[in-house]
Amino acid sequence: QQKVQQSPESLIVPEGAMTSLNCTFSDSASQYFAWYRQHSGKAPKALMSIFSNGEKEEGRFTIHLNKASLHFSLHIRDSQPSDSALYLCAVSIHSGTYQRFGTGTKLQVVP
Amino acid sequence: ETAVFQTPNYHVTQVGNEVSFNCKQTLGHDTMYWYKQDSKKLLKIMFSYNNKQLIVNETVPRRFSPQSSDKAHLNLRIKSVEPEDSAVYLCASSFKSSGNTLYFGEGSRLIVV
Predict the structure, then answer these.
(1) Of A43, A45, B62, B103, which has fewest CB within 10 angstroms of its CB?
(2) Residue in chain B nearest A44 by alpha carbon
(3) Peptide bond preceding B8 in cis form (omega within 30 of 0)
(4) Looking at CA atoms only, how far is residue A102 from chain B in angstroms?
(5) What is the pLDDT of residues B59-113, one digit of tens each?
(6) For A98, which of B2, B45, B105 is closest by C-beta distance?
(7) Which residues in chain B are closer than 8 Å to A99, comparing Cβ atoms?
(8) Do residue A44 and residue B90 have CB atoms under 8 angstroms apart?
(9) B-side interface with A, Cβ within 8 Å?
């Protein structure tokens, strides 16, 4: 069964810093990789997703995938207090199947 | 803007009672899901429905059963709740064929006393 792990478990960064979140997965057949953000008491909301090796940038957020290393990451440039939330990575074997979620990273951005 | 609606938001009940959670999506998606989020915030897939057909059924206890009347609705019934069922139940929807972006509802928190 696919295992999806995240690190670190929690993180405190100063406003304006670069934040890096990590996700590892166990099934090399995985084809879809995504990050979600969940503010306290709210629904998880999709941030970014990627299918193939490499990088993808959207605004302050960059996702990086290395399938050979079974690893992908999310980088947040110029972190803001509003970025404080639980970050969840998700993996699926192929499009149309359910996603397995990681263990989560709780991010706090302090002014 | 919320397009996946869940009711109730919050429910407290006693061990052994039956509870139901309702979910409706207005996005026109063809696949809906139920996830369970435990006290450690871990999200686990429970069920997935595509065009009224169950396509994923993880090893959840038999007291849980999904119910769907059409592709816009997916309800969750728990026949006889146990203390370990206390959690937030999140409904989500997506298009099966065009990527996997999940759209979640705000969740239904269940407390079993």
Answers:
(1) B62
(2) B104
(3) yes
(4) 7
(5) 899 999 999 888 899 999 999 999 999 999 999 999 875 567 999 999 999 999 9
(6) B45
(7) 45, 100, 102
(8) yes
(9) 2, 4, 31, 33, 35, 40-45, 48, 56, 90, 96-107
CA A3, chain centre distance (Å): 15
For A37-41, B41-45, B48-52, which range has the lowest pLDDT when averaged over its residues?
Answer: B48-52
Residue A1 above 90 pLDDT? no
pLDDT in tens, A47-104: 999 998 999 999 999 999 999 999 999 999 999 999 999 999 999 887 657 899 999 9
B91, burial (CB in 10 Å: exposed 0-12, middle 13-18, buried 19+): buried
Contact B102 A49 (CB under 8 A): no
**Residue showing tokens 């304006």:** A16
